[in-house]
Write a structure and sequence with these properties.
23% strand, 324 residues, globular, four-stranded antiparallel beta sheet, Rossmann fold, 9 helices, alpha/beta
Length: 324
């Protein structure tokens, strides 16, 4: 959280279980995709959410937008308890919360013209007359670096980076205060990634939007996020401002992730830390610290006691061996 500002988004002990069938003796099995996640996000801030595939990042983003319902926990947005809103109130509140998808190819309806895609939210919420919406769409396209004539074309006529710009314009249409960006550059070429990251930053500077920026690439997150949360097996294991996390990572998992980030600067190069084994199955998570089966520093208590996320206002870690 930045300074003493009240959080725009407050998440507390959020949990999501997915039923996956019945095992022996007819017992219901569940996958705990998100397991007790808490964080705050203030207006105009970017929080990066990082972790391996299956860590719960995308599920967390969809829970925050209430696209899926949590099993337990609390989500407050701008003072409202999102889980207490009825469908009509939630629909109105969602105007301030939007999503940018990972796949710029699959996220756009190929049968719709770009102008209809970008202006769809305006039409759904009855904002402006048809002519006014057309002008609003033109302004949105210009803001993301696309020409007016793009409105009359179809998604297949654009490159991947241009399609992602269309997706961003669609997200901006309802003037959101929060955008959940779910791996928004991972499907793009590296040169295009930089352009889209710069666009996100320019929009934030101009409009004061807060981002929940979900990614697996720590290089991208370092440039876009003010704080970073590292997720492992549905839990946040380290949360810190970006400069602190990259300079002095505490959790062994964070250290391993950072050691794998390629760099041409010899002064910044870290000794590679190779993790043993695979992440545990979320169907049968280990007792204690979820990372202990792969951790070279694990002690006896790591195998039995789950570490809490503790530390200072700028750096928290869930680790018995390397506390803040």
């Amino acid at each position: 959280m930045t300074g003493d500002a009240a959080p725009l988004l407050r998440v507390r002990e959020l949990r999501k279980d997915f039923p996956v069938g019945r095992g022996l003796w007819g017992r219901q099995s569940v996958v705990r995709a998100v397991d007790g996640v808490s964080f705050d996000l203030v207006a105009g801030e970017t929080l990066g959410i990082v972790g391996e595939s299956g860590s719960g990042k995308t599920t967390l983003g969809r829970l925050v937008l209430r696209l899926i319902e949590p099993t337990a926990g609390r989500i407050e947005f701008d003072g409202d308890d999102l889980l207490a809103l009825d469908p009509a109130a939630l629909r109105r509140r969602r105007r301030a919360m939007q999503l940018v998808f990972q796949d710029p190819f699959g996220a756009l309806d190929p049968r719709q013209r770009v102008g209809d895609i970008v202006g769809e939210g305006l039409a759904i919420h009855g904002l402006g007359a048809r002519g006014e919406r057309r002008g609003r769409v033109a302004a949105l396209l210009a803001r993301v670096g696309l020409p007016d004539e793009a409105a009359d074309r179809y998604p297949h006529q654009f490159s991947g980076g241009q399609r992602q710009r269309i997706g961003i314009a669609r997200a901006l249409a309802l003037e959101p205060r929060l955008i959940v960006a779910d791996e928004p550059v991972s499907a793009l070429d590296v040169s295009v990634q930089a352009q889209i990251v710069n666009l996100f930053q320019d929009l934030q500077a101009a409009l004061g939007i807060a981002y929940l920026f979900i990614a697996h690439d720590l290089r991208v997150v370092e440039h876009v996020a003010g704080r970073v949360a590292i997720m492992y097996l549905g839990r946040i294991v380290e949360l810190a401002d970006t400069a602190t996390l990259y300079a002095t990572p505490r959790h062994p998992y964070t250290r391993a992730l950072l050691s794998a980030v390629p760099t041409t600067d010899a002064a910044l190069r870290r000794e590679r830390i190779a993790l043993s084994g695979e992440p545990p199955s979320p169907l049968t998570p280990p007792d204690g610290c979820p990372f202990h089966p792969r951790c070279a520093y694990a002690e006896a208590r790591c195998r039995t006691d789950r570490p809490a996320l503790l530390g200072t206002a700028t750096h928290q870690v869930a680790c018995h061996v390397f506390p803040v």
